[in-house]
From TrEMBL:
Protein name: EamA domain-containing protein
InterPro entries tied to this protein: AA-Vitamin_Transporters, EamA_dom, EmrE-like
Signal peptide: none
Keywords, ordered alphabetically: Cell membrane, Membrane, Transmembrane, Transmembrane helix
Membrane topology: Multi-pass membrane protein
GO CC annotation: plasma membrane
EamA domain boundaries: 11-139, 154-288
Transmembrane segments: 7-27, 39-56, 68-88, 94-115, 122-140, 146-166, 178-201, 213-233, 245-264, 270-288
Superkingdom in the source lineage: Bacteria
Location of the protein in the cell: Cell membrane
Taxonomic classification: Bacteria, Pseudomonadati, Bacteroidota, Bacteroidia, Marinilabiliales
UniProt KW Signal keyword: no
Length: 300
């Protein structure tokens, strides 16, 4: 493959944006028959099963000193956010979820500055502020600004982006000696059993009573295999062969696909939503405008 070619890296960037931008609508479809917890569990289990051959192959690279960081990559970087996103989408539109996901690089930089002594420019601080203002507008969903009007389910996605920031900084500082495939497969090696155990405790009888559950299950299959396992392998490889900053620019494009699918599915997109999304994207742009060490981004 042509990983060292700029044109190939750009195609991978667009492919990732399409995959992750489509993940939100796949979650919405899966939630028509499955509970939010079941949808997240199935997503993580399928991703782990697909990666299992790589996990077994790469066990020889597993060192005791890396276990903590791999657990963070698996649970903070993927497992818990998967549950947060599906829970959030029981109450908010998939397009809005895609917009809020653009906060990931902003929190990645903020956590890098606070916990990893990442060098920064004041322009990036300005980006942080603008991005958070945009997120606040989306969270309040056009209502009068008051604490009682804050959509708590939207806050779940904000929390997920914070977890993404923690995860990426951990990978950059502690796991740089491993390849993207090794990190991904070994991290999911730990999350697979947890997902299986959790799913075994849930009740699937209501699901089987839904006449269209096989179709909704196929959406979760696509979400787990393509939107999680494949996408993570592509993202980690892109970071390795290009740069973390270049790879993070996928966040600029994801909301476009998320909004596109939302409109196709009949969701309402208001001027306020678009304005707030523009604020978030401007904040992301300013945050990543100058190269900052130890910073990158990871979406849904």
């Amino acid at each position: 493959m042509h990983w060292n070619k700029a044109w190939f890296q750009f195609l991978i960037l667009l492919l990732l944006a399409f995959i992750w931008g489509s993940s939100f609508i796949l979650m919405k479809i899966g939630l028509k028959s499955f509970s939010s917890e079941q949808a997240a569990g199935i997503r993580m289990l399928l991703a782990s099963l697909v990666l299992l051959p790589y996990s077994i192959k790469n066990l020889k690279f597993l060192k005791k000193k890396d276990v903590k960081s791999l657990l963070i990559a698996g649970f903070i970087g993927s497992f818990i956010p998967a549950f947060l996103f599906t829970k959030a989408q029981t109450q908010i539109d998939s397009a809005l979820a895609g917009m809020l996901n653009s906060l990931t690089p902003i929190f990645t930089l903020a956590i890098g500055i606070l916990l990893h002594k990442t060098k920064f420019k004041w322009l990036q601080v300005t980006g942080l502020v603008i991005g958070l203002i945009g997120a606040l507008g989306l969270i309040t969903s056009g209502k009068e600004l008051a604490l009682g009007n804050v959509n708590s389910h939207a806050l779940l996605i904000v929390l997920a982006t914070v977890f993404y920031g923690i995860n990426i900084n951990e990978i950059k500082s502690k796991l740089s000696h491993l390849t993207g495939i090794q990190i991904t497969s070994l991290a999911f090696f730990f999350t697979g059993p947890a997902a299986l155990i959790y799913l075994a405790t849930t009740d699937f009888e209501p699901v089987l009573q839904s006449p269209n559950w096989p179709i909704h299950f196929l959406a979760l299959v696509a979400l787990g295999i393509i939107g999680t396992a494949l996408a993570m392998l592509l993202m980690n490889s892109l970071i390795r062969y290009s740069s973390a900053i270049y790879a993070s620019s996928v966040t600029y494009i994801i909301p476009v696909f998320a909004v596109f699918w939302g409109v196709i599915d009949g969701e309402t997109i208001t001027i306020l939503h678009l304005t707030c999304m523009a604020c978030i994207l401007l904040g992301v742009y300013l945050t990543n405008k100058k190269k900052v060490s130890r910073v990158c981004c990871k979406p849904l």
